[in-house]
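Let us begin with a simple case.
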Amino acid sequence: MGWMADETALERNEANFVPLTPLSFLARAGDVFGPETAVVYRNTRRTYAVYRDRVSRLASALARRGVSPGDVVATLLPNVPAQAEAHFGIPAAGAVLNTINTRLDTDTVSYIFGHGEAKIALVDTALLPLAEAAIAEMEGPGPEIIEVADPEAGFPATGRHTEYEALLAEGDPSQPWIMPKDEWESLALNYTSGTTGRPKGVVYHHRGAYLLAMGTAVTWSVGIRPVYLTIVPLFHCNGWCHTWMMPAVGGTLVCCRDVTAKNIYDAIADEGVTHLGGAPIVLNSIINAKPGDRRDFDHVVEVFTAGAPPPAATLAAIEPLGFRVTQVYGLTETYGHVTECLWRAEWDGVPQAERAAIKARTGILMPFMEDISVHDDKGVPVPRDGKTLGEIAIRGNAVMKGYYKNPKATAEAFKGGFFRSGDIAFQHEDGYMKITDRAKDIIISGGENVSSVEVEGALMHHPAVSLCAVVAKPDEKWGEVPCAFVELKEGGEATEDELIAFVRERLAGFKTPKRVVFQELPKTSTGKVQKFELRVLAKTL
């Protein structure tokens, strides 16, 4: 039977098996990098020892306010230090972190508070009206608000709620963290709109976040002590897990509340930023920055870009400015990026135009993933011929546990043993994928997912609207914006400005159509609107 017969006594125990969790990165960093700078924001600079102590205070204070393991604690915060602390402090209390998109409308925030059953919500002072209105719409009591003031940004505490620093003062910096007993335990809850009106709750486990963070450090030339600028909102896939990654490598997290070209250039020049991530709209803002907003720097900044396929022209324009861009791809359901356009040595000498075209590919799977390939409608991988289209199918450690309280959608997403992305692509002979179309009706505006169904639903509430269809219209600044095609009822009257304002009252600004076109909609023989024709038309507007 060989030596395997003697494996029976070789069992897991506390000495040789510890559940993977990103919490361990900061627990270690507090000792290894204790006096070094961990977090920077405006005039605030905190060491790793202080960062860890504040996280301990947050975890302790939450527990004293009734947060138990498994409870949900939400945040409505921009990229400020409290949002970074929440990424460690909430899980350190055994709770589940729910970072909410700060650009959502009241009704959606209210739904997320209720569906996730958040017990407490950390809310930026500027976002208090949104949170308070959302709670007022709920049938139940809603979460307790902890106000996170930001006086330096012009948002002093209102006094209406317990302030964040007062909450931390209630906590004990020596309080032991509640580490997961099983790495499959839930770490975070992130809501994504997808293709339906109501968002779905995507559940992350500790194992996936740990492995994505570690795998990113391996492949992204992160090294030790990088300086990372938080451009990606931490409510987007928890900032692609980069905030969890930073303590593993002793990096400095530079928080950026307002994403502008000036702030990006200032952070690079003044703080020595080495890495950042962002949607193509961020790259465009860097390229098109006013001369007065630019700053000189003498190092190459590594950039991950995702959210929409970046145009080759954008990639060609930004690299001479001192940025090395790598396209990555993923979804909320995959903790952020799971593919990267890893550069190959044989491409080193190619002309700039061809180089940009190669970099515009979606790429290949990252090392913590098992299989990312393009499948036909029967679940069979398509030929790697650079032309046959199919759906991107994903399998690996950074795939969600499933959709919270939605077993039907979970089963559908995992059909055939892969996560079905809904994104259409082909695969080159070398395995590199290239997205040609995304889930048909999703509009990605400035890196934000917009559900056309949700926008159409809002438009249909207008008394003059008979039928409508919303598609993506290319936009130089945002990548894409919603464009609405509307048929009015007989005798009905409405103007473009009126309908845009009507939707703006009901949905977040980025979901509002930027153009409204009045015409008869093209339909199939069964009455289904032919959106592909409208997409072609939208490109001409």
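The second case is a distinct protein. As before, the sequence precedes its structure tokens.
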Amino acid sequence: MKTKLHFLVLCLILGLLPILNFSQCPTSNITLSSQAEVDAFSTNYPDCTMLTDRLTISGADITDLTALSTITYIPNLRILDNPLLTELDGLHNLQSLISNNTALQLEDNPLLTNLTVFTGLTSLSHLHIQGCSSLVNLEGLNFVTDFDPNGIGGGGFTGLKIDDNISLTDISALTNISNANIDIGLYAFFIIISNNPVLGSLNGLQAFDGVYDFLQIINNDSLINLTGLSDNFGVSDQDFVISNNDLLQSLGDIGGGGISQLVIDNNPLLDDISAFNNFSTTFGPFLKITNNPNLSICENNLFCASINRLQEPDFIDLYPLFIIENNAESCSSVGEVAFACGFVPFNDECDNAFSLTIGQQLQAYDDLSTTSIQIPSCNDVNRLDVWFKVNSESFNNLDIIAESSYNLQLWEGDCSNLTQVINACAENALLDIPVTTNTDYYIQVWSDSETDRATGLFDILVQNATLTIEDFTFKDFTLYPNPTSNILNLKSNKKMDFVRVYNLLGQQISSSKPNSLVEEINMSELNSGMYLISVEIDGNSVVYRVMKE
């Protein structure tokens, strides 16, 4: 009986100890904003060991934290904007308690040189290190083994943010974290590694697996690869961003589950994203791969599976949210990547016609396309076609231009009841085609699948008919031979002021000022196809169409 009584008394005493300790501490958030306030803490709270709320240390003259040496637990510690603080001595007794974790935020402490005071800290719920320009590594956090954002201090957004630390070279002290309990069902969890110009490796992040809300690797000029990231992570709801990393060449061996939105932008040396072959599921509605001039191979498993979803009825409208441009050849458009993935064109039939915007060139492809039931009025030889849709907007005349050896037929109506537009079927280009304003039109594009097959990628452009044939012609002016394979001869009874050559995309190829009655244009080096020759005499200009064989 006495033994049981002694046990109950002991339990009561142990249970009261935290309460007695807490009773000697502030009962709400506290901010120490000067050295005097820091020094007064031990006088005001002589027996305080465990705080129940946030402690903020932020002051222009704070240099010494030794008056805080009695504290063993703080659920949320913020050390912000201390321009003279070099050491954190005084926090050396800080440690985690069972089932409770600390949110640690160190921000804008430019003279802080180390974190070695935190050797007693074993678990965290949030770590934010920003603007500590003298900090070289994270030694001192190498005793942290648990990272649990669901513990006390996690808040609505929690995670790991290491940002704007200009001397930080190494985060490997985090390697000892063996248990990172990431559960975004309770909190929004993120990892942000940004603006650390000499950080050379992400080694230390291996334990952070699971599903994040967003992961951002931005403006780390010395980072060569992403080795160190977990091989079992996914990004849900928000972005996986890899942007503005000047030396980044590859993604390393990262892998994981799914990615909902992906941005890979402005990484000038990046040439290897094969790591995306390791991801098991496709991402959602947003893909942006831009301004990576060395990136040419994008037909990885993740991209191919995701782009292929655009063929599904519920996803075709998401095509504008897939942006792939300004990378190396073979990875500079959705069409190029889909082509490399070996897909039948999404716009193989009229019902899935790609929408074109007047004045904006689109790269498309017709490889693996099939024959539609709509029969064009010209060049219907071994036809395998694809489809586009355009609204005429406020224009009355349009030019529709494709690359050499492609044929075009313009249709009006809707896909269930199409009618050929009269005199709007030709090879390479439809020029000066009269249209009704604010009306949808469909464009059928194909090439001869056997004798003159232009299988593969091609550009298509719809524009206002600006380069047009004038209503008058020059008297006694001749242009020959047309078609030509070499020299094009121009003769006039008046001196020619300017002669300009344009391709069908409206791009000027050459320009000359003959100031004579004759002129020769050497077209031998030009690709086969249609060209426009603009001749100006006495302030009047005429545009002639010339076929280069």
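The longest strand covers residues 233-243. The helical segments are 2-23, 35-44, 301-308, 334-341.
Keep these points in mind for the review questions at the end of the chapter.
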